[in-house]
Write a structure and sequence with these properties.
The protein has about 290 residues and is α/β, with parallel strands linked by helices. The protein is built from ten helices and eleven strands.
Amino acid sequence: MTGISIVIVNYKSWNHLRKCLDSILNQKNVTLEIIVVDNNSNDNRISEFKSKYNDVKWIINSENLGFSKACNIGAGNVINDWILFLNPDTEIPKNCFSSLMVKANKIPNTIFSIKQLNEKNKDSYAYGTFLNMYTLNGTQRFFHRLFNRKTKNKLSRLPSFSPDWVSGSFLLIKKEDYVKIGGWDEDFWMYYEDMDICKRAKSFKINTIFYNEPYCYHYHGKSSRKDFKTKINSKVQVIKSCLIYINKHYNGIHSKILSFSILFSVCLELILMSPFSKEKRNILKKILKT
């Protein structure tokens, strides 16, 4: 069936999810299916939402399976030709989907995303280049961003462009392309899974296009910053996923150098900051245990 099946993975993001669903239901001139996969929020809110949003298909996991696996579960239940993977802490302006689909339906073999504005109404640059030595550790990231800032400012004024990867917070893909790629890699519990799926897409000659119009709002990290413990686990998961990505896409000595570089730089930063930050101490302890 022609239309968009929207897959939203939720974990205790109910207030944002409510606004997200309301904004989706206000969309016109497009056929929509909404699937919410709840990763065991286990806070007695699900029945309230199922009652209010009875046109939404709800899938309740008995445990927190992570982003990638939950996305695959949701995608396994879609009925439309297009799948949109969407974060619960997003809001969709009026006519966003219909405007995007006019463009997307003309371009085959492509993953699409759009500009995402944060709570300060500023571009969050929800795209990037594939992982390399310049984007790994703090010092290198600083210089990479310094020289890359002008490029991003120029890109933000273009109608569209083709980055290496786009964020999984708003990722639109044809169902047949999703199947061809093999879906999300479930080795990535959270983070780097969007970079990975876009990199694998390239091997199937599936491109990425990022539009500056239309746009949506994305209130970053609301699911991963619910409390101190969740925040610590999220930061550790970033490092784990980074290492998984390196070991998957790089071989031999290159993989070893990149892995050592990320671990060394992160541990050094945490050691230097741990006397001043309880959060840094807890992250360092978790890394040393894994």
